[in-house]
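re: that complex we talked abt at group meeting.

here r the seqs, copy pasted straight from the sheet so there may be weird spacing, ignore it
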Amino acid sequence: QTVVTQEPSLTVSPGGTVTLTCASNTGAVTNSYYPNWFQQRPGQPPRPLIYSTTNKHSWTPARFSGSLLGGKAALTLSGVQPEDEAEYYCLLYYSGAWVFGGGTKLTVL
Amino acid sequence: EVQLVQSGAEVKKPGESLKISCKGSGYSFRNHWIAWVRQMPGKGLEWMGIIYPGDSDTKYSPSFQGQVTISVDMSTNTAYLQWRSLKASDTATYYCARGDVLDYWGQGTLVTVSS
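got the structure back, here u go
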């Protein structure tokens, strides 16, 4: 069974930088997994941030960036704002199907 | 403007059937995949499956294969998610989203299954 793992929770100070990661139990995450990242605030649908590892949607703030880091997909927030407090999910592609990670609850404190 | 508008909340009993919908507008419906995503109360997102309206090619997550059916009606630009026999564990919010990058999302449909 494919399992995608994210940090359950992270805390960052306003103005700080934080990196969220996304790992696969099948091995190193590469561009072939087309990593996507989503932000979800309570009571709202998920909001897409990053697709295919590094690509931003037209609405994605510049402070969000995607990369590969140490065999994982990564989402880095630079200059964190209070409104960035939310749940973040990664999504990876596996031969015709996609799997979400368990999500990271990001607290801005 | 791209929009995905989902059908309203449902309250059902175990064993009942259900079909919820997702109507696309503002883009070429036939040329973009539509995915379905489950979110159980207080839990994370789960990718259920995806359909290509142009040819009805459908792929399911192994976790949902045989449990639900995804379909599409090209005449109304609408995708569907259906159950033959609901269980209490199907209680969740179900989202549809466009494409394999899930760039646009519906507002979600809350399905409550309770006796």
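couple things i noticed - Chain B touches chain A at residues 35, 37, 44-47, 49-50, 59-62, 95, 97, 100-103, 105-108 (CB under 8 Å). The first strand of chain B starts at residue 3 and ends at 6.
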